[in-house]
Design goal:
By secondary structure, the protein is α/β, with parallel strands linked by helices. 44% of the residues lie in helices and 15% in strands. The chain has 12 helices and 12 strands. The strands form 3 sheets. Strands 2-1-3-4-5-11 form a 6-stranded parallel sheet, with helices on both faces. Strands 7-6-8-9 form a 4-stranded parallel sheet, sandwiched between helices. Strands 10-12 form a two-stranded antiparallel sheet. Strand 1, helix 5 and strand 2 form a beta-alpha-beta unit. Helix 6 crosses helix 7. It starts with a helix and ends in an 11-residue tail after the last strand.
Length: 329
């Protein structure tokens, strides 16, 4: 830092103010300091800064080690939001979200000096783990809804499923069938709840749920069963990958979409607009999830008096061509 001050012709304190983004530094002085930093290829010593400020500017993320679109996109959203806010991110990726694994991951991240931790918690087991978690640093959960004892950020899955179901009912379909996700997932429960309560409120019959595992093959298997029932005119799938498999099964069975059967998904994965036909779905804003989670964690770090306990991010219906008016029977 002394070399930077010498080249820029300023004091050591001025260099420190520029590095810390302090106000009241003249623009020409700031420019000279930044030019000297580039010329000397100066890099601040983050370890030394942490000793002085007691802030590591590093956050931990406990991630469910899955290639599934939802958890992976949550992680991406959190990392981008953290970078924008000037934080580094250290990730502990797990294969299971049981109590022991989550606690061990949190302990490893604390050993690295993280200031706070975000836990991606899409499964019921993660909620149980969070209830027993011991941590001296703030923890925020993403994806666990209002069932967690720690502050949480989640998509309003129930509202999204309700909107999808209501859209199909408004198109004149007598009822809506559902391809659900696997048991043990919070999204499975809340999306199924939104679907069922909307049907019941409309006085519509609640069909038997077809279960999948979030994958296109499981959606295809459900589609083969659904295609055999000529009375089915509308299907809400709990995610877009299962909807993709369902669409193939219906095409192979000669069922026109949306002429014979309308289909709505959930997620709005990047490929959804290129399905045949393009998929009507419920969009999750993972960037907003990451931003809200980071905002909540920073509030905890800064000791804000009334930290919000649970934040729900509203999803958005995306209308394409896979859903249409019910055919008269």
């Amino acid at each position: 830092m002394a070399d930077v001050a010498r080249v820029a012709g300023v004091s050591h304190q001025t260099v420190s103010r520029v590095l810390n983004g302090a106000p009241h530094v003249r623009p020409d002085t700031r420019d000279r300091v930044l030019a000297a930093i580039r010329e000397l290829d100066y890099r601040p010593n983050s370890a030394a800064r942490a000793l002085v400020t007691r802030r590591s500017q590093t956050l931990g993320v406990v991630s469910f080690g899955s290639a599934l679109y939802g958890p992976a996109s949550m992680l991406d959203g959190i990392e981008k939001a953290a970078r924008s806010a000037g934080y580094f991110v250290s990730v502990a990726s797990l294969r299971s979200l049981d109590t022991r694994s989550v606690q061990e991951a949190v302990d490893r991240l604390r050993d690295q000096g993280v200031e706070g931790i975000v836990v991606i918690a899409p499964q019921i087991s993660a909620v149980s783990a969070l209830a027993k978690l011991s941590s001296a640093v703030p923890v925020v959960a993403v994806g666990s809804g209002s069932r967690s004892r720690v502050p949480t950020v989640a998509v309003d899955n129930e509202a999204g499923a309700s909107a999808a179901t209501r859209h199909l009912l408004d198109l004149g379909h007598g009822t809506v069938h559902h391809v659900a996700g696997p048991s043990g997932w919070l999204e499975t429960m809340t999306r199924q709840d939104g679907w069922r309560t909307t049907l019941e409120a409309a006085g519509a019959r609640v069909p038997k749920v077809q279960s999948g595992d979030w994958s296109a093959p499981s959606g295809y298997e459900a589609g083969l069963r659904i295609a055999k029932d000529p009375l089915v005119t509308a299907v809400f799938c709990a995610n877009d990958h299962m909807a993709l498999g369902l669409l193939r099964a219906l095409h192979e069975a000669g069922r026109a979409i949306p002429g014979d059967i309308s289909v709505v998904g959930f997620d709005d994965i990047p490929e959804s607009a290129y399905f045949t036909p393009p998929l009507t779905t419920v969009r999750q804003d993972f960037g907003e999830l990451g931003r809200r989670a980071l905002e909540l964690l920073v509030e905890e770090l800064d000791g804000v008096g009334h930290v919000r306990s649970h934040v729900l991010v509203s999803p958005e219906m995306v209308l394409r061509r896979s859903a249409g008016p019910a055919a008269h029977q």
